[in-house]
Write a structure and sequence with these properties.
The chain is mainly beta and 401 residues long. It folds into three domains: 64 residues, no CATH class; 181 residues, Alpha-Beta Complex (Sulfite Oxidase, Chain A, domain 2), CATH 3.90.420; 110 residues, Immunoglobulin-like, CATH 2.60.40. 8% of the residues lie in helices and 31% in strands. The chain has six helices and 25 strands. The chain is globular and about 70 Å long. The structure holds the ligand Nc1nc2c(c(=O)[nH]1)N[C@H]1C(S)=C(S)[C@@H](COP(=O)(O)O)O[C@H]1N2 and molybdenum atom. The site of molybdenum atom (MO) has 6 residues, from loops.
Length: 401
């Protein structure tokens, strides 16, 4: 089969310098100088105005303005790939999903039509890269310098992974379920992108193979025709263009499980650990940590001294949001925000809070969320060398007039 590199950025409509600067302000000005010299606004095929970080592989971030609604539109949803050679739409017309593995009782090959014949399930869930906000790490750490937009929330529809696994059955020694997608590296030495889940998470009724995102087919860059959805877990497990699923009796020892996406022990307590992937040195990232994003007012903007509203979103790894608090006095006192409609425990929870009259001049807004499991955003960054799980309370500086 003929394969070629899809450069999502090729033919991208770049914005004018002034528009790019304005959009850059929307993308969050909190990045240390120099972390992002190459970023610019771009509209790769099927997408509108994303922040381009790299082209090969494509890494595009969602700007702040797209988080004003708790559902992120498909055409503004971020894009993250590790490997540069992506499948084309033409190649994916012949897509099939192969089921097997040493701990599967049988094997099968499914088409998209086969998958769609299984009972459909729906879940609204945040897809967030564990490296979201890595660019805001201090001290600086290497890796894609994401600001706040390596995440999105969508309504995903597909088959339950457990129903798919039932088609082949499993042996008692089944330990992990391993996924592979159809993208690959330019050189055969590049480790293929392969991820696995512990059996319990694979069999969780919320874990899906989705073919629909917000009521439409998955965009090519977000995993067409089908991807894994693991609500509550960071997006590294959400395999796009998934082409094979193996039930295995051994822990996956590939690079992307054993070396990448790992955090030191004890720094991030996880409700759902992954014991077969623990080593003496570290653990795999699993649960999304509790976090908030202020969408209004935008940093460095002017607010009305007579009163203004602070708005944003909050989310965690699936316990749901208990409360969101706002402080305008450097965290000495906190006021409780009003939570908007609940779209489910895995979704962005929109919130708002009116600030009464303030003195004209600088205002420093701090916002923190507490999850239903008791977890609260820390004041200080929980440092780890690969730059994951940045959920430190942030300050948004505005000027009241
Ligand atoms: N096939 C494939 N699936 C993948 C990846 C990848 O590189 N290839 N990256 C994973 C990671 S680390 C992230 S953060 C999410 C990003 O999902 P998105 O591109 O739909 O936003 O996809 C996950 N699934
Ligand atoms: Mo990621």
């Amino acid at each position: 089969m003929h394969r070629r590199t899809l450069m999502l950025g090729s033919g991208a409509a770049l914005l004018g310098a002034r528009e790019a600067a304005a959009a850059g302000a929307l993308s969050d000005p909190g990045l240390p100088a120099g972390t992002r010299e190459v970023a610019e606004m771009a509209s790769p095929p099927g997408k509108v105005k994303l922040i381009r970080l790299t082209d090969r592989p494509p890494n595009y971030e969602t700007p702040l303005e797209a988080f004003r609604t708790p559902i992120t539109p498909n055409n503004r949803f971020f894009v993250r790939y590790h490997l540069a050679e992506l499948p084309t739409m033409a190649e994916l017309k012949d897509w099939t999903l192969t089921l097997g593995g040493d701990a599967a009782a049988g094997t099968a090959k499914l088409t998209l039509a086969d998958l769609r014949r299984l009972p459909a399930a729906e879940v609204t869930a945040v897809c967030q890269c564990a490296g979201n906000r890595r660019g805001l790490f201090s001290p600086h750490v290497p890796g894609v310098q994401w600001s706040i937009g390596a995440m999105g929330c969508a309504r995903w529809r597909g088959a339950r992974l457990r129903d798919v696994l039932k088609l082949v059955g499993m042996k008692p020694e089944a330990l992990e379920v391993r996924f592979h997608g159809s993208d690959h590296g330019p050189l055969s030495e590049t480790p293929i992108f392969r991820k696995s889940l512990p059996m319990a998470r694979a069999l969780d009724p919320n874990t899906l193979i989705a073919w629909e995102m917000n009521g439409a087919a998955l965009p090519l860059a977000n995993g067409f025709p089908a991807r894994i959805i693991v609500p509550g877990w960071t997006a590294t497990y959400w395999m796009k263009h998934v082409t094979s699923i193996d039930i295995t009796s051994a822990a996956d020892d590939g690079f992307w499980m054993q070396k990448a996406y790992r955090v030191p022990h004890g720094v991030f307590p996880a409700a759902a650990p992954f014991p077969s992937q623990d080593t003496a040195q570290n653990s795999p990232v699993t649960d999304i940590v509790v976090n908030t994003l202020v969408t209004d007012p935008v940093a460095d903007s002017r607010v009305h001294a007579g009163g203004f509203e602070v708005r944003g979103i909050a989310w965690d790894g699936g316990s749901g949001i208990h409360q969101v608090e706002v402080s305008i006095d450097e965290g000495k006192t906190w006021q409780t925000a009003k939570l908007d409609k609940d779209l489910g425990p895995f979704a962005f929870r929109a919130w708002r809070h009116p600030i009464a009259r303030v003195a004209p001049g600088p205002v420093a807004l701090r916002v923190r969320a507490t999850a239903n499991n008791g977890a609260v955003q820390p004041d200080q960054l929980m440092f780890n060398p690969a730059g994951y799980h940045n959920n430190a309370v942030r300050t948004v500086h505005v000027v009241a007039a």
